[in-house]
Design brief:
Elements lengths: L1 E4 L2 E4 L12 H31 L1 E2 L3 H15 L4 H27 L11 H11 L4 H9 L7 H11 L1 H15 L1 H24 L5 H6 L9 H9 L2 E2 L18 H12 L5 H20 L5 H38 L7 H10 L4
Parallel strand pairs: 3-4
Antiparallel strand pairs: 1-2
Helix pairs in contact: 1-2, 2-3, 2-7, 3-8, 6-12, 7-8, 8-11, 8-13, 11-12, 11-13
Length: 352
């Protein structure tokens, strides 16, 4: 509230604006965002309680997608138009690509190229000696029919693959939209590179090679842990038959966690260490449970690094082109005239 004092405007002390420059409208908006964020957290907690009570895990991509869109709607109730636009523009093309990738991967082994069993075994023996890491780890750490603490931990880390990629995308879409677009691009290109390899080099995982007596005995720890925990995955009408048993090279299960670390590399050491530990834990889990050879995991890391480097190079060049194009506007100098246009002008009238 303002008044006149000696012909000058004065502000009544009791009506001064907040010291942080905020307005009542902004404060109300912050409170609304906090309430919606709290509702989103309750949504996640309620889902976790339901999973624990009924033993039904959300692992199918279509079910995870629907669940995430519900969560995003809750935290976007203060701006529902953005949510609707995001679903149509940002999410539907992305999820349709992932569905197409899953379907194409399921028929990748029908090209007539036989599955490879021996090259991965030979590479593991060359790198790590005999026995290969999977057999060594299971021999020393896995003691069926009992399950140890690390078995439950490995099983939990393995399951994060089925919802981790989309969950990170949902968090970034809501709170860091530019990073969401980068993450979406990286996921698409990494999936494309992996699919091309699956088609050209179908490869069997360790547990399948063990069933053919090509290596020592290997337990399918992942399947046994479902029995230990009394849980099962909710079946999906879309993805129920989209399974490719010979898509082990490279391990995208290991590649995506490393890609997360690279995406957040610029945020500092805390982010690097956190996502780096997750990538290492996923790689160790995949080898221990017999889902991938150690060489599959290392190759997955390489795929992630190369994909990130190539996409980052494209981003840098694109940003440089945009900066050059915007430079005349910032300096006030006239934009360069194309040669053809300059010739046309000089032919028609003199140029000062």
């Amino acid at each position: 509230m303002e008044t006149e004092l000696n012909g000058q405007r004065a502000v009544v002390a009791g009506s001064a604006a907040p010291s942080d420059g905020s307005t009542p409208e902004r404060a109300e908006s912050r409170r609304a965002r906090r309430l919606l964020l709290g509702a989103g957290i309750l949504y996640v907690v309620a889902t976790a309680v339901a999973v624990a009570a009924f033993g039904q895990l959300l692992l199918s991509r279509d079910i995870v997608f629907v669940w995430l869109m519900g969560g995003l709607l809750i935290v976007s109730l203060n701006n529902p138009r953005r949510w609707v636009r995001g679903v149509i523009v940002d999410w539907l093309p992305f999820i349709l690509f992932l569905f197409a990738y899953d379907y194409a991967r399921s028929i990748a082994d029908s090209t007539g190229i036989g599955a490879h069993y021996h090259p991965q075994i030979d590479v593991d023996k060359f790198l790590f000696g005999s026995p290969i890491p999977t057999i060594f780890l299971q021999h020393h750490l896995y003691h069926p029919p009992h399950a140890e603490v690390w078995d439950y931990a490995a099983w939990g880390v393995y399951l994060t693959h089925f919802f981790g990629t989309l969950t990170l995308a949902a968090i970034l879409w809501r709170f860091a939209y530019p990073l969401f677009k980068k993450w979406r691009t990286l996921v698409i290109w990494l999936s494309t590179a992996g699919f091309a390899t699956y088609v050209l080099f179908p490869a069997a995982p360790p547990w399948l090679a063990a069933q053919r007596n090509l290596i020592g005995h290997i337990e399918k720890i992942k399947d046994q842990m479902f029995s230990h925990t009394g849980t099962k995955a909710i079946t999906s009408a879309i993805e129920n038959n989209w399974v490719d048993k010979v898509a082990a090279v490279p391990s995208l299960h290991a590649a995506f966690p490393l890609m997360m670390m690279l995406l957040f590399w610029h945020r500092g050491w805390k982010w690097r260490v956190g996502f780096g530990a997750y990538a290492f834990a996923m790689g160790l889990t995949l080898v221990y449970t017999g889902e991938h050879y150690a060489s599959d995991v290392l190759l997955g890391y390489i795929y992630a690094g190369v994909t990130y480097a190539l996409v980052s190079l494209y981003w840098r060049r694109k940003a440089a082109r945009q900066a050059r194009a915007a430079a005349p506007e910032r300096t006030g100098a006239p934009a360069p005239v194309p040669a053809a246009a300059a010739a046309e002008v000089s032919a028609s009238e003199p140029v000062a």
